[in-house]
Specification:
The chain is mainly alpha-helical. Helix content is about 75%, strand content about 0%.
Length: about 80
């Protein structure tokens, strides 16, 4: 299942990624991503799939960083 425009914006904001950063990963311009997120342009299946892949990669980075921080915190106790 591909992501919706609302989901793309939601997860992008949750992960603290700018439109420019995500757009670069997806292969579109930040302006186009803004249009898509605001519903001013239709979200193609291809862009939705690339966004899902990019957000999955970002979530893995966030998860790895969280685990590293937790390990450091545990070592301090």
């Amino acid at each position: 299942m591909a992501l919706t425009a609302n989901q793309i914006k939601y997860y992008r904001e949750i992960f603290g990624v700018s439109q420019g950063e995500l757009a670069k990963h997806i292969g579109i311009t930040p302006v186009m991503l803004g249009f898509i997120e605001r519903g001013e342009r239709k979200l193609s299946r291809s862009v939705a799939e690339r966004a899902a892949e990019a957000l999955l990669a970002i979530s893995r980075q966030v998860s790895a960083a969280t685990e590293e921080i937790q390990s450091l915190a545990d070592a301090l106790q």
